[in-house]
Amino acid sequence: MFSEESKEVSFLRRFSWVVVTGGSSGIGAEFLRAIDSLAPGAFVCNLSRTRPEAFTDCERRRHFTCDLERIEELQAVAAELLAMMLGRGCSGPVLLVNNSGFGAYGEFPDPNPGHNASMVDLNCRAPVLLTGLLWPEILRRGGQIVNVASLAAYQPTPFLATYAASKAFLLHWSLALDCEGRRHGVRSLAVCPGPTATNFFRRAGFGEAPVPGYGLTPEQVVRESISAMAKGRAQVVNGFPNKLLAFFSQRMPKAFAASMGWRLMARLRLKPLREAKRRADAK
Ligand SMILES: NC(=O)c1ccc[n+]([C@@H]2O[C@H](COP(=O)([O-])OP(=O)(O)OC[C@H]3O[C@@H](n4cnc5c(N)ncnc54)[C@H](OP(=O)(O)O)[C@@H]3O)[C@@H](O)[C@H]2O)c1
Fold first, then answer.
1. What's the pTM?
2. What angle do CA 101, 13, 196 make, to 5 degrees?
3. Ligand 1 mean position to 278 CA, how many Å?
4. Does ligand 1 come within 6 angstroms of the Cβ of 44?
5. Which of 39, 38, 44, 79 is nearest to 58 (CA)?
């Protein structure tokens, strides 16, 4: 991914603690894999409901089984992390990657109101609470926060209404946190990928990636994100076409961007419905 002499590798090797959420698949799994191989001196922790493949606990790795939608589970795991950080004696900077998240495609409140509220809990409350609980230790040691937002953060998005709004929250929160934290040696990077080949689309209720042939790999997202951190950026939109989209959509009046989004997303909505009907008719 990067050469041994690159500034990205020396940037990553500054950290003695790395905490990733959602390392069991997709973008988070790639963050874990890249950091684990490029920064072999760091103690790496993963927080997700399932253990990442080939991520066995050892002297420098630990998986915490944790549902981050549940406030008490998150608080318990944060307390354990803090105790480990204090108990282990190594005092280097912390890299925290807030990556866990999901979306749901459909007309609000599809599939149900509780699902939308859980999405806000995971996409917004969990990063705020986890970062806040670890913050005193991060301030003391110095560090870097990575918040995995989305291209959807830049405009209101019908049929992904709650998801896009949750990512707008994460983007704005991350940018403000960066301004506060940089005075104390803590930076925050908002990562805004466009469509990326992961389990995200299946979980969100799309039959397939919505724009076939147009999309990123988790490796591309992570490579660009590590470069952005090493350059001291506060936000990165992954992929050139997505940079253009973000540039224009954030300059449009919000109501206009929403109605443009409605036209585009309604077409995507019809496609899986038509395919389901065709399959049902064929039986
Ligand atoms: N793929 C895209 O097109 C795309 C685009 C823009 C932004 N993103 C963002 O990228 C991030 C990663 O998504 P992905 O694309 O890699 O999708 P993914 O493959 O579905 O991965 C989602 C990760 O989140 C974890 N997670 C889900 N619910 C959780 C919970 N309740 N508690 C703890 N962890 C939970 C999952 O782990 P467990 O199931 O094991 O808990 C999994 O590791 C998300 O924040 C997503 O919004 C994705």
1. 0.95
2. 30
3. 30
4. no
5. 44
| Strand order from edge to edge, sheet including 61-65 | 61-65, 43-48, 17-21, 94-98, 143-148, 186-193, 235-238
Ligand 1 neighbour 215 (Cβ under 6 A): no
Which residue is associated with the tokens 């609980």? 133
148 lines ligand 1 (CB under 6 A): yes
pLDDT digit string (tens) for 26-47?
999 999 999 999 999 999 999 9
195 ligand 1 Cβ < 6 A: yes
**pLDDT value at residue 277:** 60
* Amino acid sitting at position 43: F
Residue 209 confidence (pLDDT) = 65
Q: By three-state DSSP, how is residue 191 classified?
A: strand
Domains (range + CATH), the chain: 7-282 (3.40.50.720)
Query: What pLDDT, on the 0 to 100 scale, is given for residue 210?
Result: 66
